[in-house]
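Hello,

I think I submitted the guanosine-5'-diphosphate job twice by accident. Can you confirm which output corresponds to this input? Input:
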Amino acid sequence: MHARFLKSAAGADGFPEDSGVEVAVVGRSNSGKSSAINAILGRAGLARVSKTPGRTQLVNFFDLGAGRRLVDLPGYGFARVPDRIRAEWRDLVDAYFASRRSLIGLIVTVDVRRGLKDSDRVLLGFAGELGLAVSILLTKADKLSRGAGAARRLELEAELGEGTGVTLFSAQDGTGVEAARTGLEAWLGSRAKA
Ligand code: GDP
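Support: Only one job matched these inputs. Its output is below.
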């Protein structure tokens, strides 16, 4: 999948033109979102493996060609951030979801060892209201045995129901990377308006 960095935006006025189709990736901070983006797009270092919660939060757009984009939303769920940062996150992500008609699906990264947290559930509820397709990547699968990972995946599938795909994923050992890429291409391809 050929990808190039398009732009970063700290607010809706910086978002690129709302045409074509895009899929957004979001998750709790440290859930492995940046590593997942880099693995799926096959480009180490394209999405910055994130660190400090205090920094300016940005929405990063990657151009996949033919009017298709992957969008890296800022992570949420830092344990100790000032309310100001939390409010900034909400405003930015609200602005994103409210304005992007080209958005067709959401990939949510969830650390397989931690499972869904309240903040993930809020986000999934939000995606449901917007009628977005949702795919969950259970990240860092290399940290669990194969059996334990498979059990986590089945539990989550049972909880979320048929509409939500759940994929065991590891940027480290490559588990699920091809499946995630194929799923992304299917979403973007089926709705491409090139
Ligand atoms: P983000 O904050 O959600 O973007 O997460 P990052 O991609 O920055 O990863 C957070 C931490 O988890 C980093 O220390 C990564 O090296 C580590 N990590 C990410 N993906 C994997 C994985 O597949 N396996 C393992 N073992 N560690 C991972």
